[in-house]
Amino acid sequence: MSQTITTRRTGRGLSALILPAFAGTLFLSAFLLFSVQPMFTKMVLPKLGGSAAVWSVAMVFFQAVLLAGYGLAHLLTTRLGLAKAIGVHLMVCLAAAVVLPIAVPASWGAPPERFTEVWLIGLFALTVGLPFFAVSVNGPLLQAWFARTGHAHASDPYFLYGASNLGSFLALLAYPVVIEPWIGAQAQARLWAGGFLVLAALIAALGAVTLKTAPAGAAREVRTKPEPIAARRALRWVFLAFVPSALLVAVTAHISTDVAAAPFLWVLPLSLFLATFVLVFRHRPLPPHGAMLAVQPFLMAAVVALTALPVLPLPARVALELAAFFVAAMVAHGELAADRPKPDNLTAFYLWMSLGGVLGGIFAGLLAPAIFTTIAEYPILLVAALACRPGLRRPSTADLRRALPWVAGAALLFALPVALHLPLGTLTDATLLALVALAVVLVVMARADDLRLAGTFAVTLFAAVGFAPGLAKVESVRSFYGVHRIAESADGQFRFLFHGTTIHGAERIRDVAGAPIDGRPRPATYYWSGGPLADVIAAARAAGGGRIARVAAIGLGTGSLACHARAGEAWTFYEIDPEVVRIARDPAKFRFLAACRPDQEIVVGDGRLTLARADRPAADLIVVDAFSSDSIPVHLLTREAIRLYRDRLGPHGLLAFHLTNRHMDLLPVAAALGTAEGLTVWSRVGHPDAAGEAEHDGTSAVAVMARDPADLATIAGDPAWRRMAPETQVAAWTDDHADVLAAILRRATGREPETH
Question: Fewer CB within 10 Å: C terminus or N terminus of the chain?
Fold first, then answer.
C-alpha cells in the first residue's frame, strides 16, 4: 500500500511539473527560432549591399522552412505512434547539431546580377536551414504531446501557442537591445549552438515524460483520424494568415528602405506580428476583438491622409504605419483564433495557417518585385486587410448593391482625376487639405458596413498613392535593391531619378523656353559646383599636385559625379545595382556619362566587396556615395570598412563620405570612425544659394578623412568646413554593431555635432 501511495505522489509531482516544463521548452524553442533570424540575416547583409530586400527574402525563407517544420509535426502526430515520433524528431535534432555553429561559408561567392533571390535562398538553406527546420517542428509537436499527457489543461493546448510566441517576442526585443550591441557575431553563433543542445535535451526529457503519462498503448498507437476540415474553412485560414504575413514583409521593407537595413527596424514589425498571436490565442483575447474592429477604420483613414500628405516626421510616420499594421494583424489573427478547431486538428490548423504565411511571404518578398514596378503590394495588402473583417466573409448581392453607389461616388471624386492625370498640382493648399479631409471623413463614415469600408478605402488610397504634384512620371524600374523612378518636373525642364522617396540625381533637359539642352550637363542635387563634394575633389587635386591619378567612387546614381572628372584621370565607379548602371548609361534618360565620360569604367557589385577584391593601384580619392533611398548602407560605414578604404588609398589619399540624410545624423559617426582609425576628419554641410536651388541643387553633408592633416590644407583654410571632434557618447560603428537608433534620435533632436 505504501508503494501505491508513493507512486501516486510521484505521479502528482510529475503532473505538477508537466505544464511549466512544456511551457519553458516551448519558450526556449521560440527564443532560438526568432533570435537566429536577425542574427544570420545580419551576417549575410554585407554581401548584398545592405539592401532592405535581404530581410524580405529571409522572411520568405524562414516562413517556408517553418511550414516544412509544421508539416513534419503533422506527419509525426498523425502517421506515427508516439515512441517513433519522438525518435524521429530527436534524429532530426541530432542531424542539425552537426552543422553548428552557424556561419557564412568563406567559399560562398558573390551574388549574381540576376536571380539574386535564388542565390540568397540557397545560402540560407545551406547554412541555417537544417537547424531552423529542427527548431520549427517544436511549436505544434510539443503542443500535441502535451494534449496526450492527461494534464488538466490538455483538452485545450492552444494557450501554449501564446507562451511560444512570448518567447519569440522577447527574442526579437532582446536582439537589438541586448544581443547585438554586446555580443559579436561569432559569439552569438556559439551561444545559439549551446542553446540548441539544451533544447534537444529538454525535448528528449519531455518525450520520456509524455510516454510515461500518456494512456496505455499510446506509445505505439497512431492517433485516430480527426474530423475532416471543410475546404472553405481551410482556405479562409490560409487567407487570414496570408494577409498579415504579406503585410509584415511589405511594411518592413517600406520602413527600412527609407532608414537603414538594421535589425531593430526588422524586429519592430515582426515583434508586433508575434504579439498579436500572444494576445488573440488566450482563453479571453486581450484587447477584445470588437475593439480592434472598431479602431481599424480610423487608422486606415489616417493612412490615407499620411499617404496623400507625407508631412509627419519619421518617428510619427513609422508609429502610425506600425499601428495600422498591428491592428490589421490583430483583426486577421483574431478571426483565426475564433475559428480554431478542436485539439485533434491542432497540427492541421497550424499547417494551414503556416501555408498562408508562406504564400503571403512569397507574394510580398518574391512575386511582387517581379510583377510590379512600384511598391504596389503595400497599398493592395492594406486593402486586403479590410477584407479580413467578419462582414466580408460571405457578402451578399444586397451588400454589393448597398455599397456600390457610395464607393462609385468616392471613385469619381478621388480616383478618376488621378487616373486621368489631371493637373492636380495646381490645386491650392486649402483645396488639397479639404479634399484629404473629405477622404478621411468618407472612410470613417463607411465603417458601419465592411464592404463599403473596404471599397472606400481602396479608391481613396489609390488616389493618395497616385497623387504626385509637380511631377510627370516617365518610367519606374524595380530590382532586388529597390524601386527606381524616373520623373520629369511639371514644366518639363528637369528630369529626376528617385530611389524610394529620395532624389538621387537631377538634370536640366530643357531651358525656360522649352528647347532641349545640349552640351555638357551641369551636376545638380548633391554634386553642384562649389558644394562639399566639389571641394573634396579640389582638395584631392591639390594634394596630388594639380591632378588626381585615380578615383574610386562607390555608388553611381545618375553619373553626376563623373562630370567632375578631368582628362587623364582614371575614375572607377562601383555600383551594386545593374538597373542603376543601365539608367546612367542611357543618354535618353540622363546624359552625364554619355557627355562627360562615355567610356567610364563601372564595376558591378557591392562596393566594399568588389573594392576588397580589386587588384588595382592605390587611389588618390575614394568617395563613398552609395545610397538606399535616403540611407547609406551601414556596412559601408564601419571600422572594418574604413580599414579597407585606408588600405586602398595612396599615402596622400583622401576618403570622402556623402552623408546627407533626412532621418539620421551620421557626421558624428564619421568623426568617431576616423578618430578610431587614426585619421583627421573634417565636415561641411553645404547649402546652395537661390540660383542653385532653382537648378535643383540641394543641401549636402560630407565628411572627408586623411592620414596627414597637411593633405587637407585647402579644406582647413575654408571657413565653411569644420574639423570634427569625436563625441564620447557616439561609438564608432562596427560590422557587429551599429547604433542606428541613436543616429535617428540625434537627427530628431537637431543637435549639432562637436568640432575642434
Answer: N
Place of cell 510583377: 371
Does some domain include residue 276?
yes
Q: What are phi and psi of 451, to 5 degrees?
A: -70, -45
Range of 695's domain? 532-749
**Whole-structure pTM value:** 0.82
Among candidate residues 390, 413, 438, the one where a domain is terminated: 390
Residue 264 resides in a domain: yes
Chain segment 160-209, per-residue pLDDT in tens: 766 787 888 889 889 988 898 888 889 999 999 999 999 999 999 999 98
Report the domain count for the chain.
Answer: 2
Cα–Cα distance measured from residue 575 to residue 345, given in angstroms and rounded to the nearest whole number? 52
What is the SS3 string spanning 170-239? HHHHHHHHHHHHHCCHHHHHHHHHHHHHHHHHHHHHHHHHHHHHCCCCCCCCCCCCCCCCCHHHHHHHHH
Sheet arrangement for strand 570-575: 601-604, 570-575, 550-554, 619-624, 649-658, 700-706, 680-686, 722-723
Whether cis (ω within 30° of 0) applies to the bond prior to 423 is no
Task: Specify the long-range contacts of residues 580-584, CB closer than 8 Å, at least 24 apart.
Answer: 580/481, 580/484, 580/556, 581/556, 583/477, 583/484, 583/486, 583/497, 583/558, 584/556, 584/557, 584/558, 584/559
Q: How confident is the model at residue 258 (pLDDT cuts 50, 70, 90)?
A: low
Structural domain ending residue among the three candidates 363, 390, 417: 390
Sequence-distant (6+) residues with CB within 8 A of 622 are 551, 552, 553, 554, 611, 645, 648, 649, 653, 654, 655, 656
Residue 147 belongs to domain with CATH number: 1.20.1250.20
